[in-house]
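Worked example

This section walks through a single chain of length 443. The input is the sequence exactly as stored; nothing has been trimmed or padded.
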Amino acid sequence: MNKGKILVVDDNQGIRAALKLLLPPHFGQVKIIASPASLVSEMETFKPEVVLLDMNFYSDINTGNEGLFWTTEIKRMAPLTEVVLFTAYADIALAVEGMRRGAFDFVVKPWDNEKLLATLTNACQKACKSSARQTISEGKTEMFWGETQAMQTIRHHVGKIAPTDATVLITGENGTGKDVLAKEIHHLSARSNRQMVCVDAGAITETLFESELFGHVKGAFTDAHADHIGKFEQANGGTLFLDEIGNIPLHLQAKLLRAIQNRSVTKVGDSKAIPIDIRLICATNMDLETMVKEGRFREDLYYRINTMPLHLPPLRERKTDILPLAEFFIRQFNEKYHRDIKGLSEQGREVLENQQWSGNIRELQNCIEKAVILAEGNLLTPNDLQIKTSPKPAEMCPQTLEEMEEKAVREAMERHNGNLTMVAKSLNISRPTLYSKLKKYGI
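Given that input, the structure is written out below as tokens.
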């Protein structure tokens, strides 16, 4: 049983009675009301993950305008709540407009029980995941600008770029905070009250690329048991963040370019183009200009996504930000783990400043998190930080199997310019295994 809460809004007594029998065994809580008149108060008190919303509440009015109005209101009041529209009129134009306003999906009456339950379950799971991500990231996605000239220049540019709908390309090494900067741009944009959909483009398998990004219809392929809304549609009206865009295979880049240019998508197994309204932000740790010259990245796609380029410098180029960042993370993890760490000892500060942060901000963050959890005193010492002043790279030699593995992965990433397919092949491991190792070592 899904633990989510479903709020049903429908004026038909027979439908309410049927749903009262159908839904409760499958969801944590189900509340059914006859009119949207009390919708605002129910949203505040019941706090549903999903609203199953009828589109018409007067027998002589079948335009669906009420459903569209309340869809907009629900997403404004609770952006993480998903809306499933419920209508007896299979009007594709109306469905598209509902999606534009943030609806998760569209169910036609009379409904198929299995299809309705699957749609509500998917919507509920998405809402719960979004809520969990927000809870985990509260206080951690705040952008730390620091005082270096490079970061202050980026901050100035972001102030001008964010309010527009201009496409942004964020570049920088792994761990420099590209995803955090993307969220900051969305937060400062006119779309901040709408959804930001984040996609790790490098983690999508080639066979599911179109389905994940553009969606599919039921029966489009063997396992397509129900319609699926792609990431572009999910981001409709909001922001789509394509991370690791440099990892998209060349032959799939044309399909992505077409969707970006036309501002429309066609689901796998369908022939109808669905218009989309998104603000696009992309990120990569690769040198796309070099990839274009080598024929590994489409030149037209590169210029399409590179309207506003922003490059995040590595931590080694912003040394003066190391200690302020460490203090920043100490405050965050104090709150998360209910600790009372006052700061860093003098020796701890020295160790952090002299460390070679190959994993950049992400590596520093992980270091501080472990130290806050394990510290015995109220100041973090070198012993708490579990690091020593790093020797120069030429002097470093792996002592354990893990260190040798990390060294091999890093060298392969550098040798193949971050091309994950080539890296995995050279290491004789699968791409999913490579993803886990990159995450493990903060690469």
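What to look for: The first strand starts at residue 2 and ends at 9.
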